[in-house]
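REQUEST ID: PR-0412
SUBMITTED BY: lab tech R.K.
PRIORITY: routine
TASK: structure prediction, single protein chain
INPUT:
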Amino acid sequence: MSGDFRLLMVAAMYENGGNVTHRFLDGHPQLFVYPFESQLGTQLVNDPLASMFPKKYRWPVFALQATPDEDYRAILDEECRVRARTPEVSKFRHVPFDFSDDDRAASYREEIGRTGRSRGGNVAAFLKATFRAWRDRRKTGAEKVYVGYSPIVVVDADKIVGDLPGAHVLHVVRNPWSAYADTKKRPVPMPLADYMLAWVTNQHQALLFRDLFPGRVHVARTEDVLADPGRTLGAFLGRIGLDPAPSLAVPTFNGRPLPEVYPWGTIRTPTPQANRATAAELSPAERDEVRSRAGTFLETFDYKSFL
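STATUS: complete
OUTPUT:
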């Protein structure tokens, strides 16, 4: 049942270190860590935030009259499906990944046959089925908690913890100068004003839900993760009943160390030095505008003197 399902959902605004944190968690022996972004949203998401954030990153909405097959197909999950079905065009085509989306669909149907349809149950079944269909996943036998990562999903943290009593949300925040400087490297970057509106919306929602759901919604700074991932993430995992592990010190995919985090995210080298150097890439005018638009969140997260 979904009430027994344990989920850790990692969230972060774009280029805020969510992918980096996800990769640091990847090799932990007690975690089922999703291989790519777990883009669980569906096209039925329709609320005031739907015009700001892509539906694939949101917590899903399912049609009341849908069948399990229709529910399964509704989950967008672009990164995993592209790698599974058309690997030659996937940005992850360079990593081994023996996985069948059709096998996952069959496993999903079996799981829903046991549990019945519900939003939380559908998500739990989808994630369980993913790991059953991942043939070359390195297993430890000690796994207890499923880990997903989807940018900006903290805006739905109330739904996540409401649907799944065993769920936690870990929102990761990065100083906005480094974050925006990395955003500028995208082929079609967001304008500064648009990016910062989304950045402050994410931080507001994260702090709101942390206060509303203490012990279930958590906030961490990327700067602290980069400075000492083993200590920072180990302490967090301890608070949710898991053990520290040496693997937390190294970003990995399927337990194998990565020479750089890219293409999982734009942060290639996860170090404090690289993080500060990225912030310094902005012009003086850009730095000032980011500072102005970030407002009181700079003080809240102790970023006033970062740059």
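NOTES: The beta strands are 7-12, 31-33, 145-149, 167-173, 217-221, 252-253, 256-257.
REVIEWED BY: pending
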